[in-house]
Write a sequence for this structure.
């Protein structure tokens, strides 16, 4: 009984950890791919605009920050009575409690489709090394967890199948570093930080084993789980000269069975960072290269107790700004320990989808336009590909009042005699133009609509 009480206290203290993981900035330089199939697929991906990133793993059991609490870096300390080594063992032991008895990937896919999303990225393995597929490379996997024996125990397969059924592009998140692997964090040595914990020059054969381990896992993922559109590689520090994992060989393995595969070696500038991924932020200005903001629906990537949600209006505002600046939005949503998308998230996602059902023409398959904002008026512009139509999105502010709204902008002037259409109502909006400035007054009652999208004929 005493042991059970102590464990409960440890678990409760751990549940309090909801710290945001370390935020990765985008790389400084972009190198465009040269392979025709990749270029074509990347162009098609840029039309999708809105996707979901789903973090799921042993951290979901405790509702804590994904993986990072087992590092000994000074920016995060687990709120636990255990010392560091014991804490790591407790954390990795959560795999025996990983048992999503209500696992329903079809619900996930249907909710995300209702939210207006077009592509997905799912965590096959985070930095802690827990594999959500039936790998032959390690026993630290879902088919050797509390979920073992369930007909859907090979979770990755069922998640991919469910999303493909709903027409999604599939993306496979994969952590290049693996803290559970003895070839990366060798238990004979201390783990000072997130990096490998032994000198590779002294133990080159050990690092060769790690490279073989990573390549074998990539081969499994790319060969055995159907078509994959995006390989989203995280852990940017594991590609530096002193942690060489032979990216040329890794990508060759992946693209052998997945031709045209978009590889996102995030934060690592080079030929395998096919698009950039600023995290939890939006670039200050337009970017001309392909990119995606990855941002959470709550304050955390995975599921946590007592989450703090962003409003639908806030997410729509982010999406409008991202699209105006030439990017896409990958929204982080974490399933519960039981294997569902929680009700509060579902309500918000469906509300976003309702807005996109009416106003999606201003988002999907658009391109950036030189005059892309009037920030003072909270207006974000995008353009049709033929450049004959401009779209203006005026997001709802959280403190929006129920009264008429007069706004104006310079440039993006309607063609003489043409109409400005409110996409949601399909009705023309009265406007005036003078000295290249367009002014419109939107009627009262817009508070609660999550924003207005206009169609402007040039």
């Amino acid at each position: 009984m005493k042991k059970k009480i102590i464990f409960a206290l440890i678990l409760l203290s751990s549940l309090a950890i909801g710290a945001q993981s370390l935020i990765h900035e985008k790389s400084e330089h972009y190198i465009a791919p040269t392979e025709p199939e990749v270029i074509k697929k990347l162009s098609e991906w840029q039309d999708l605009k809105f996707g979901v990133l789903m973090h799921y793993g042993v951290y979901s059991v405790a509702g804590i920050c994904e993986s990072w609490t087992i590092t000994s870096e000074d920016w995060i300390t687990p709120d636990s009575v255990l010392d560091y080594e014991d804490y790591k063992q407790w954390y990795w032991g959560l795999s025996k409690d990983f048992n999503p008895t209500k696992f329903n990937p079809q619900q996930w896919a249907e909710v995300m489709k209702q939210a207006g999303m077009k592509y997905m990225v799912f965590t096959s393995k985070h930095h802690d090394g827990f594999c959500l597929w039936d790998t032959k490379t390690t026993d630290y996997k879902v088919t050797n967890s509390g979920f073992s024996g369930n007909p859907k125990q090979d979770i990755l397969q069922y998640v991919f199948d469910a999303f493909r059924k709903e027409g999604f592009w599939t993306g496979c998140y994969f952590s290049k570093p693996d803290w559970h692997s003895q070839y990366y964090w060798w238990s004979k040595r201390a783990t000072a930080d997130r990096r490998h914990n032994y000198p590779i020059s002294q133990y080159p054969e050990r690092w060769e084993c790690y490279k073989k381990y990573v390549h074998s896992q990539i081969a499994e993922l790319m060969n055995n789980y159907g078509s994959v559109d995006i390989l989203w590689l995280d852990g940017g520090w594991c590609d530096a000269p002193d942690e060489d994992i032979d990216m040329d060989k890794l990508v060759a393995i992946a693209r052998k069975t997945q031709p045209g595969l978009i590889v996102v070696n995030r934060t690592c500038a080079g030929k395998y960072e096919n698009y950039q991924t600023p995290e939890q932020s939006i670039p200050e200005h337009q970017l001309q290269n392909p990119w995606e903001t990855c941002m959470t629906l709550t304050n955390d990537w995975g599921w946590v107790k007592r989450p703090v949600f962003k409003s639908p209006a806030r997410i729509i505002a982010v999406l409008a700004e991202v699209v105006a600046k030439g990017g896409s939005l990958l929204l982080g949503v974490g399933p519960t320990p039981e294997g569902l998308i929680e009700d509060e998230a579902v309500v918000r996602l469906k509300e976003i989808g309702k807005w996109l059902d009416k106003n999606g023409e201003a988002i999907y398959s658009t391109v950036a336009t030189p005059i892309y904002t009037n920030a003072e008026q909270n207006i974000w512009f995008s353009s049709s590909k033929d450049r004959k139509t401009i779209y203006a999105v005026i997001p709802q502010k959280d403190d929006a009042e129920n009264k008429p709204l007069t706004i104006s902008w310079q440039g993006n002037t309607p063609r003489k005699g043409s109409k400005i259409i409110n996409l949601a109502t399909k009705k023309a909006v009265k406007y005036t133009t003078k000295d290249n400035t367009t002014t419109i007054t939107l009627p009262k009652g817009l508070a609660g609509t999550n924003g207005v999208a206009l169609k402007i004929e040039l």
User: Anything to note?
Assistant: Confidence is low (pLDDT under 50) at residues 1-20. The radius of gyration is 23 Å.
